[in-house]
Amino acid sequence: MNEVAVAPIKASDEKFCSECGATIKEKAEICPNCGVRQLAPPSGVNLGPVTANGKNKIAAALFAFFLGSFGAHKFYLGQVGMGILYLLFCWTFIPSIVAFIEFILLLVMSDETFNRKYGRA
Predict the structure, then answer these.
(1) pTM higher than 0.85, yes or no?
(2) What SS3 state is found at 44?
(3) Domain locations in the chain?
(4) Where is 103: in which H helix or E strand?
(5) Degrees to nearest 5, angle at CA 104 with 108 and 44
(6) What is the DSSP letter of 38?
(7) pLDDT, tens digit, 9 for 90 and up, residues 6-52
(8) Which key words tag this protein in UniProt (predicted)?
(9) 28 and 36 in contact (C-beta within 8 Å)?
(10) How far apart are CA 62 and CA 60, in angstroms?
């Protein structure tokens, strides 16, 4: 009745089996416990360094370039109020001009500055 769930512990060179949850070596292709082949980690496009909260400078710049008139980059960076303001005034094309300027500023911004400004969790 008073059971406490204990989370399994793994070392830095280990992972959990995708099928049975057993602790196995990180490079193991097949789980020795259940025999299930492990999936390879996703090999997505690397867009550069990521902040502590998962934000990426290049992704933010791409949002600003392609969807900046609707404030998508502001929503992505956690500035919801500014994103709503961009949405309210998107018909004036002013947010498009500002977003293009912000696109350029995001591209030339150093990773340290980006992390300091947008990297809080």
Answers:
(1) no
(2) coil
(3) 11-43, 57-118
(4) helix 94-108
(5) 75
(6) P
(7) 556 777 788 888 778 788 888 888 888 888 888 766 666 667 777 77
(8) Membrane, Transmembrane, Transmembrane helix
(9) no
(10) 5
